[in-house]
Design goal:
By secondary structure, the protein is α/β, with parallel strands linked by helices. The protein has helices at about 35, 40-55, 75-90, 115-120, 125-135, 170-175, 210-220, 240-250, 260-285, 315-320, 330-345; strands spanning about 5-10, 15-20, 25-30, 60-65, 100, 105-110, 140-145, 150-155, 160, 175-180, 195, 200, 295, 315. The chain is built from eleven helices and 14 strands. It is globular, with a radius of gyration of 20 Å.
């Protein structure tokens, strides 16, 4: 195995694939709807590696973490983990060292996935938490990763990951995983009624609009005209978000005023914050020690001050001031690359 060159971290999710190097100087994210495109995963991974090689030396090794195994195109989590690991092996066939990260901090080869699927499933939150616990080895901290799809609320105590849950189901039960993020959650799963110009208005229980539309209208997420991974497969722009919001109350877009759209966005934003706040309170109510700080990462890190009661907040960029990239959106990919570099250097 080559002992030089960058470590390339892959975070393979159900909707996106994120890539980062262990030095934090290269980050990349692509939309990849696993439920539609799982058979193209190997080709996509190969393409991402080729893109990296255009301006960088060959990777020393690949570090892989995932959440995409939950996509409903797979028969089970075991099937999903195995399929993802097979696709990684196919797409990175010329890279000698490929190691997959397990919840708990261990590593295994991709060809061991069938026997290690339970540890490999949904391991990306632990990679991020493990990395942050190394940086903050004293005191009590809460890592909050508000992503596009989900939110992780992870207590860290004296350099250890201190969660009550260990998998998705138990983490949901303890408030440590909230299946709501700032882009993909259907608004009809968060609210049942909105007040429009003072009139309570029940909403359509359809996937007409998502949290992405909320934050496009509030201006907290920038427009992406080329992105059509939206509720209606139209662009991620404020104008298109306005149309999607109108459908939520069965209204014609031209009859919904900008003021009314902003009312809807503000109310759905408040509902998201309340959902995250409830989970945060559930987690922190079980912690007896004073909380020293919050670590905020993810696409929705801007929401964290709204529900953490004025505690000091550190952002991922604060913990890695030497990085030339915005690490917030690709935190687990970066973390898993750093962790593999440590593992290989110790071997």
């Amino acid at each position: 195995m080559a002992d030089t060159g960058p470590i390339l971290g892959f975070d393979i999710g159900g909707a996106n694939i994120k890539v980062a190097t262990s030095d934090g100087h290269y980050v990349h994210s692509v939309s990849f709807p696993m439920w539609r495109s799982q058979n193209q995963l190997g080709t996509q991974i190969s393409s991402l590696i080729a893109e990296f090689r255009k301006a960088h030396e060959n990777p020393r090794a690949l570090a892989v973490t995932m959440t995409g195994e939950l996509a409903d195109s797979f028969n089970s989590k075991r099937d999903g983990v195995s399929s993802i690991c097979n696709a990684v092996t196919e797409g990175a066939a010329d890279i000698e060292t490929i190691l997959c990260y397990e919840t708990g901090g261990q590593w295994c080869r991709a060809d061991e996935a069938d026997n290690r699927w339970a540890q490999l499933a949904a391991s990306n939150w632990y990679a991020m938490a493990h990395h942050c616990s190394q940086l903050l080895s004293k005191g009590t901290h809460i890592l909050i990763d508000v992503g596009t799809t989900t939110t992780d609320i992870v207590p860290l105590a004296e350099g250890q990951v201190a969660t009550k849950g260990s998998d998705d189901t138990t983490r949901l039960q303890h408030g440590e995983l909230v299946y709501c993020g700032v882009e993909r959650a259907s608004l009809s799963s968060i609210v049942s009624s909105l007040t429009i110009d003072g009139t309570p208005t029940p909403i359509a229980r359809e996937r007409f609009a998502t949290t992405l539309d909320t934050f496009l209208i509030t201006g907290e997420i920038s427009e992406r005209p080329d992105d059509i991974e939206t509720a209606d497969s139209k662009p991620a722009t404020r104008r298109a978000a306005h149309r999607r919001m109108a459908r939520l109350i069965c209204q014609c877009p031209e009859l919904l005023s900008d003021k009314q759209a902003r009312q809807m966005a503000q109310q759905t934003r408040e509902a998201v914050v309340q959902l995250l706040s409830s989970a945060y309170q559930q987690v922190t109510s079980q912690i007896s020690s004073p909380i020293d700080s919050i670590i905020a990462i993810g696409q929705g890190d801007f929401l964290v001050p709204d529900f953490t009661g004025g505690l000091p907040i550190q952002y991922l960029r604060d913990l890695h001031p030497g990085s030339s990239q915005n690490l917030a959106r690709i935190g687990p990919a970066f973390a898993v690359a750093v962790l593999l570099e440590q593992h290989l250097n110790q071997a």
